[in-house]
Design brief:
This protein is of the alpha/beta class. A 7-stranded parallel sheet has the order 3-4-2-5-6-1-7. The chain has a 6-stranded parallel sheet with strand order 8-13-12-9-11-10. A two-stranded antiparallel sheet has the order 14-17. A hairpin with a 7-residue loop joins strand 15 and strand 16 (484-486). The longest helix is centred in the C-terminal third of the chain and has 21 residues, at 582-602. It binds adenosine-5'-diphosphate (ADP) and zinc ion (ZN).
Length: 603
Amino acid sequence: MPSPLQVLEEHFGYTTFRGKQAEVIDSVLSGNDTVVLMPTGGGKSICYQVPAMVLNGLTLVISPLIALMKDQVDALRLNGIEAAFLNSSLSGVEQNQVYQQLENGSLKLLYVSPERLFAGNDFLEFLSRCNVQLIAVDEAHCISQWGHDFRPEYLQLSKARKWLKDATMVALTATADELTRKDILDKLGLSEPNVFVSSFNRANIEYHVQPKQQSFDRLLDFLATKSNDSGIIYTLSRKQTEQLSEKLNAHGFKALPYHAGLAREVRDQHQEAFLKDDVNIVVATIAFGMGIDKSNVRYVVHMNMPKNIEGYYQETGRAGRDGLDSTALLFYTAGDLFQLKQFAMIDDNEAQSRVMLRKLDEMAAYCELTTCRRKYLLNYFGEEAPNECGSCDVCLNGPGEMMDATEEAKMALSAVIRLKEGRGIRYTVLLLTGSDSKDLRDEDTWLPTYGVGKHHSAREWNRMIREFIKLEVLKVSDGLYPVLQLTGMSRAILREGIPVMIPVKPSKPATKKTRKTASNSAADSQLQHPELFERLRTLRKLLATNESVPAFVVFSDAALRDMCEKLPRSRDEFLQVSGVGRNKLERYGTEFLKVIDQYVVTA
Ligand code: ADP
Ligand code: ZN
C-alpha cells in the first residue's frame, strides 16, 4: 500500500499537504467518519482522492454538480487514476461500460449524483457488492434546508450508509455557518465524526469595494489591468448580463453572457468557451458558478450588491483556486440595498424575510466598512483575524473613501418635502444653510429645516445633493425649471433609516492607486519570464483542445508559473514542478520541455 504522501507526489505532483489535508486523510484512513469545512480552493478534493488511492477498494463520490463530474474525472485520469462518473448525461452504452469497470474492480473512484444514487434500491444493492471503502459527500451543505443549495436527495444519504456498511464517510463543504454545520452532523448519519475546520481566509484574494457611480468606466479601468486573465462578472438580471457583455465586446474584450434563461446548448457552449480559455470573461447571474471549477479565474466582479455574505464569499471564492493572486471587486450603492430589501419583503414567509433582511444589512455593512474587509468577513464566519490584512482596499488605501451622509440625506429630504417638491438645488441649499439671501422667501425662513445644515458650506451641500441624485435618494425633474423631487428610496431612508454612503471627495477614476494593480495579471513583472508563460499557455491550450478538456485540467496556472520559475531542462527537473506527477510527465513532459528549451536557448 502506498503512503498518502507517495500518492500525492506520484499522482498529483505536489510535495506537501496543505492546511489540514494531512490530518483529514489520517482520520479518514483510520476509518473515522470525518467532516471537512474548508474554503473554496482549500484543496478538499485531495482529502478523498488520496485516500481513494491508498485504500483497497472503491471510493464513491457523491456530488450534485453533474456539469463538473466530467472535468474532475478527466483530471484524475490525466493523473493516472482510474475514475468514472455516472449521471443523467451518459448514454446507455457509456453507463454499461462503467458498470463493467465496477464489476471487474478496476475503478478507484466513482462520481455519482444523488439522483442517480437513489433512483431505486437496485443501484445501491449493486454497489454493496463493489467493495466501497469510502463515501465522500461533496458539497455537504446541500443537506441543509438553511443553505441556499438545499437538495432533498441529500437527506437520503444516511440510507446509503445502511447499504454500504464497511464504508467510512467523509463530508466536505465550503459553507461553514453554524446552522449548516449542525445539519450536516445531524442529518448525514455520521457516527462520532472528527470535524476539521480550516481557516476560511483566502489570503490570495484582494477585496475591493467601489462606489457604483460610473461603474462601467471603472470596470474598464479595472479590466485594463487584467490583460488576458480570466474573470467572472456577476450582475443581477439576465438582461444586464447580455447588455454588459455586449458593451464589453464593443470595447474589445472577449465576453459571453450566462444565465438560466439561455437555451441549454447556448449556456453549455458559453461555459465551455470560458473553461477552455476561448473567451476570458463571463458576464453572469449567480446561476453561473456552481458548475465551475476553473482554477485560473483571476478576478470576480459584482456589479451589484449580493444578497448575503455567504453568497458573496462563495462567489468571490471562485477566484484564485490555484493559489495565485486574485481580485474581488464589488460596486456598491445604497440604492441596491433598497431594491433588494423590497424583493426580500415580498416574500410571504415572515420569519424568512426577517433573516433575509438582516443578511442584506450585514452585506451593506460590509460595503460601507471603514475597517479591514477581510477581518469583517472572517469574523462573520466566526474566525478571529488581525485588524489589518494589508490586502483589501481599506488596508491598502486607508479608510474614508466613503462617508456616512445619512443625516445630511434626511435633512435634504425634509427640505424637499417642506418645499413641496417645488424648488431646485440652489434654493434648497439656501434653505439648508440658513442663507440670508433675498432670493429666499420670507415664509421659508420660518421652516424648521431653515439652517439645519449650516455646519456645511453651500458648496459641500451642492456636492452632497448631486451625490444623492446619483444614488437616487433624490431626483431632478425634467423641464425648464428642474426641481428636486422624492424617489421611492427617499421614503425608505426617512422611515427605515437605510444608511446613505457617499464618497468623501468627488469620485475619481478607479484602481490607479492600488498597491499592485498589475501584479495580479499573469503577464506581470513578478512573474519570471512572462513571455515563456504565454508560450506555455499557448501550448497548454493546444493540448487541451486536442484532448477536449479544459486548459486547467492539463496544467494549472500555478504549474505553468512554477515552470517559469524553475526552468526545468530534464525529465527529472520537470517532475519537480508543482502539479507534475508521473502521468503528466509521460504525457506532456516532452512537449513542454521542448518549449522551455527553445526559450532558454534563444532568450
Ligand atoms: P476545493 O475543492 O476545496 O475548492 P480543490 O480541491 O479544487 O479545492 O483544490 C484547489 C487547487 O489547489 C487545485 O488546483 C489543487 O490541485 C490545488 N491543491 C490542492 N492540494 C494541494 C497541495 N497539497 N499542494 C499544492 N496544490 C494543491
Ligand atoms: Zn484588510
